[in-house]
Amino acid sequence: MAKSITQEFVKGLWDEIPPFRLVLGLCPVLAVTKSVENGLGMGVAVIFVLVCSNILVSLLRNIIPSKVRIACFIVIIATFVIVVELLMQAYTYALFLKLGIFIPLIVVNCILLGRAEAFAYKNGVVASIADGFGIGIGFTLSLVSIGALREVFGNGTFFGTSVFGPSYQPFTFMVEAPGAFVCLGLMLCMMNLAGKK
Amino acid sequence: MREIIKMIVVLTVLSAFSGGLLAAIRGGTKDKIEYQQLVFVKGPAIKNILEGCSNDPIVDRFKIKDGDIERSFFVGVFDGKADTVAFEGFGKGFGGDIGLMVGVNINDDKIIGMGVTTHSETPGIGSKAKTDPKFSHQFKGLAAIEPCKVKPDGGKIDAISGATVTSRGVCGGVSNAAEIYKRLKPQIADEIKKKFK
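Output (structure tokens, whole complex):
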């Protein structure tokens, strides 16, 4: 049964929100969420690559032979990732420095390959765009929420501005690697409790 | 047979197309990226170090070949005399390499300022090496031809509390810059003379 465009979009925001429901793409979720800004930047980059690659894959889905489809997906995804990398270097250099290696690593993010294989290769262009935006925004929201949690407690700031004032002693554990795992675990737990029927 | 040909054609066309797209975008963003790198990474540190100079050090820069590497030097003009250069050094920090800029007066070989440009130290602790002026001001007036050390190692620099490794890394970077300066001093003086007759 075909779903409507809105449904394709909305499913990415809750039912199939990547890091929490599908538990996919955890590497950037753990690594770049030291601050809200990083999370947002990473999310926007992923949205761009996801939407573009979804469009191209669904346009070419009748031409790409199924035996070499994975290779074709990777070529398409890698191209857009490098486009993002160059554009970020040219226009948002400060953010690019913070995200560093994790921008090129979007290539191997399983969300992108997963959406190309599981959705765009089987559906029309419009549905693929909706799917790309939905999943991408869902991914961004998760990055931003974990980033907010870690930045507020770990550094006492939100988006670079101080929340608790100068007397707050930052709980540095949160911005280090173990804090990322704890945050992710807590978020997964909350999502599961909230989604329990 | 037909299938194989189709696979080859599709992959070739796709790769050629992506190659062309990337080449175009790279060509379009190249200058912008180089400018951004200078302004963002080194610009603030250079401005800080060469405070009050009457020229634009990023415009008045020159390169000297040092073995296999080309090093950039930024000239500062004070009171009509071009006698100060700022250049880069690297040291090993807690989270990776620390890049820093050192400004040296070529008449008396004294450091006039130091600023950290790139680092991956712990936010809120080691990152103070970049943000805390009290720390970086200690380097002012040191001789640029001697290695630089923190107090526990027998030097003159007060380490940042909780970030001894970072402080040592910064001192290592300054020492590294001092070595470069010692090695290249004749060429530096030559280049400045050529530029400001």
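Chain B has one domain: 46-195.
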